[in-house]
Amino acid sequence: MTTRIEIGSISVDQGLHAFINTEVLPGTDVSAAEFWSGLAGLVETFGPKIREALDARDQLQDKIDAFLGENPNAEADSQIGFLREIGYIEREPNDFTVSTDSLDDEIGRVAGPQLVVPVNNARYALNAANARWGSLYDAFYGTDALSQSAPLTPGKAYNELRGRAVVQRVRLFLDETTPLLFGSHVDVTSYYVRHGELHAKLECGRTTGLRSPTQFAGFAGEAGEPTAVLLRNHGLHIELRFDRTSAVGKTDKAGVADVILESALTTIMDCEDSVSAVDAEDKVHVYRNWLGLMRGELTADVPRGDKVVTRRLAADRTYIGTDGAPFTLPGRSLLLARTVGHHMTTDAVLDSGLDEAPEGVIDAAVLALIGLHDLRSERATRNSRAGSIYIVRPKMHGSQEVALSDGVFAAIEDMLSLPRNTIKMGVMDEERRTSVNLAACLHAARERVVFINTGFLDRTGDEIHTCMKAGPVVRKGDMKTTAWIKAYEQRNVAIGIKSGLTVGPDGHGQIGKGMWAMPDRMEDMLEQKGAQLRAGACTAWVPSPTAATLHALHYHEVDVAAAQRELRHAPAAPLSELLTLPLAGGRSWSEMEIAHELDTNLQSILGYVVRWVDLGVGCSKVPDMNNVGLMEDRATLRISAQHVANWLMHGVVSQEQVDSAFTRMARIVDQQNEGEPGYRPLTANAEGPAFMAAKDLVFRGAEQPNGYTEAILHRRRREAKRRDALEATSREDVGFAAG
Ligand SMILES: CC(=O)SCCNC(=O)CCNC(=O)[C@H](O)C(C)(C)COP(=O)(O)OP(=O)(O)OC[C@H]1O[C@@H](n2cnc3c(N)ncnc32)[C@H](O)[C@@H]1OP(=O)(O)O
Ligand SMILES: O=CC(=O)O
Ligand SMILES: [Mg+2]
C-alpha cells in the first residue's frame, strides 16, 4: 500500500516525493514549493489537453476504420481526399527553417552513431555514456564482423591468427581513411611528431606523413615517441595507441596496441520502449539513474571473473595539439533522455480527480529538473557544454501533439526559470499521422527541435493498426519493401533537409534513422547500415557500444554533408506513396508460410513478455526461430501483436490455430530460457500474467488504441509484481515460523 502526499491539487507518491525533495532539489536553486506547485499546474493544464488529443486520435481511427471497412480497395487519391476532410492530413506550413540554437557539436555539426540504452539499467547506461570511444580491435575481434578470419573461441586464450586478421583490417581502414603521402600504414615501424606534424617511418627506411596533414589532430606522451596519436576524419577522431609491452603491441611493427574510434557521439537514455517501469517505485529508479548521470556520479558494480569492478563515467581525454598546447575531448557521449508518450499515465502522481497524471508530462518535468544539475555544474565533464537539456518525445500524432509537447516544455522552462528553448526536443517520426504531416510537426517545434528520427518499428506497428480494417497485411518480413516505408524514409530526409536539419558548421539538428535490431549480426550491419547515411541521415541508431564503434566506420566512409548537399533538391515522395496500404491484395500464402509467419510472431511475443512481465526487463535479445538473437522492445512487440491481430481479423488464421501455435511456441521459449535465473516456464504457468499478456496482446490487439501494447503489459506486470510480493511475504512467514 503506497502512502501519498497531498500537495495542492495533486497527490504524490511518497517515494517520489522523498526522492525529489532530498536527492534532486538540493543544488538546483528550485524550492520544493516551486517545483510541486509548478508540477500541479502542469498536470491541471496539460492533463485535459492530452486527453483531448487522445480522443482525437480515437475519433480519427474510428472514421478511418469505417472508411476502409466500406472502401477496402480505395485508390490513394480517394483516401487522400477523405483524410484531408477528416483533418488527418493537415495544411502544409509555408517554407521555414528550423532555428534551434545553443546546440552541442554532437547534434547536427558532426555526424556519428546514436546509441540507445534502457536508462534503468545502470550498468548498461554507464557503458553507453562511455561508448563515446570504443576499441576497433575489440569490435572486430569479438564479433562476426570479420567472418573470414580464424574463429573466435569465447573465454579461450588470444587467437593470434584472428588477431592478425583484425590488425590487417584496421590498417586497411587507416589507409582508406587517413592515407599516407606514400606507403601504407601496414609498413610503418614508428610514428612520431616533429614541428606539429605527424611523421611515419616505413620499413624501407623512408619517412612519410599524412596525405592530408590536417588530419593529424594531436598526440599524447613524448613527441618523439608518442603513447597515442590522434587523427581526424569527417570530424570524428581516431586514436592510435602505442604500447610495445602489451600482448598486441609487442607483435606489431609500429607498437600499435589498439585503435580507438570516437563512436557513440550521442546516446539516448531511454525511459520508454526499452524499459519496464509500471509504477512510482519503478519510475523513481529510472529517474535516479538519470540523476546519477547528470551529476556525473552514477556507478555500477560489474562482476568480472571472480572480482567485481565498479563502473564509473569516463573522464575527458587529454592530448597535445599541433600547436603544442594541451586540449581535451569529451570522454562521454552526449546524453539525451526519451520520455514516454502522451498516451501513458502514472500512479506516481494523481490529479485533482484522483486519476493518474500524464506520465509524459511528469517525465519531462523531472528529467528537466534533474538536468539542472548538469546546467549548473562547474565540471568540465558536464553533459551539455552548450547549456541545453535534450529530451526526446516518442509516439506523437501530428502537429497539434508536437505543439502540445512544445507547450509542456515551455511551461517547464517557466517553472524552472530557464530561458525559453533551453529544453531541446527530439521528435520521433514513428506514427503515421506524424509522417504524413512532418513539415507541420517540425514547424510546431521549430525553435527547439534537434532531431527527427524514423522509428520505423513503431511506425510499422502503427501502419498495420491504421489499416486494420482494410484487409490482411503482407508478411512482417515483406514490410521492408512496401511502398509506404520507402516513401516514409525518403520523405523524412527530404523534409528534414528542406527545414535546415543538415549537418555542418551551422547545423540545427539531426536527421536520424532507425535501429539495427540484430545485435549479434555485425557483418551484416557493416554491409547494410552505411546505406542510411547515403540516403541522407546524419545519425542512425545502434543497440550496443560495439555496434556504435563498427557503425562509426560508415561515417568515415560516407561524407554525410556531401550526401545531404546532393539530396537538397530532391522532392519529398508524394503522399499517395506514403499512404499506399501494405495489404496483401490478391496474394495468398501456402499453409506452411502462414504457419511460419504465425510461429515467428508468437515466439517473439512470448520470448519478450516472459522477461518484461515476469522479470521487469524492458529490452531483450530474443532468439528467433533460426536462433538469431533479435532486439525486442515494445515497438517490435507492437508489430508482432498487430500482425497476428490483423490476420485473425481477416481469417488468415483462426483462433484455434493461434492457440495451438501459442502452446507450441511456449515450449520453445521455455527451452530457450532454461536455466535463466527467476524464469517461470510458460508451460507451467499458462494462466500466469506473462502468458495472459501475450494472449491479450493478440486476441485484444485490434481494439488497443493505435495498437499500443503498454496498457496490457503494464496491467500484467503490476499483477506479476503483486504475485512476487505475496510470494516473498509467504516465504518470510514460513521462515519466521520455522525460525
Ligand atoms: C524501437 C526502439 O525504440 S529501439 C530503442 C530501444 N532499444 C534499445 O535501447 C536497445 C538497447 N540494447 C539493449 O538493451 C541490449 O543490447 C540488448 C537487450 C538488445 C542485448 O542485451 P544483452 O543480451 O545483455 O547483450 P550482450 O550479452 O550481447 O552484451 C552485454 C554487454 O553489452 C553491453 N551493452 C549491451 N547493450 C548495450 C547498450 N545499449 N548500451 C550500453 N551497453 C550495452 C552491456 O553493458 C554488457 O556489457 P558489460 O558486461 O560490460 O556490462
Ligand atoms: O523508437 C524507435 C522505433 O523504431 O520505434
Ligand atoms: Mg519507437
UniProtKB/TrEMBL annotation:
Domain Malate synthase G alpha-beta insertion: 158-233
GO CC terms, sorted: cytosol
Superkingdom: Bacteria
Cofactors required: Mg(2+)
UniProt binding sites for Mg(2+): 430, 458
E.C. number: 2.3.3.9
Renumbered residue ranges of the record's region Disordered: 720-739
PTM annotation (Cysteine sulfenic acid (-SOH)): residues: 619
Compositionally biased intervals (Basic and acidic residues): 721-739
Positions annotated to bind acetyl-CoA: 116, 123-124, 274, 311, 543
Organism: Acetobacter nitrogenifigens DSM 23921 = NBRC 105050
Stated name of the protein: Malate synthase G
GO BP terms in the entry: glyoxylate catabolic process; glyoxylate cycle; tricarboxylic acid cycle
Sequence ranges assigned to domain Malate synthase N-terminal in this UniProt record: 18-67
SUPFAM superfamilies: Malate synthase G
Family according to the record: Belongs to the malate synthase family. GlcB subfamily.
Pathways involved: Carbohydrate metabolism; glyoxylate cycle; (S)-malate from isocitrate: step 2/2
Primary residence: cytoplasm
Active-site residues from the entry: 338, 633
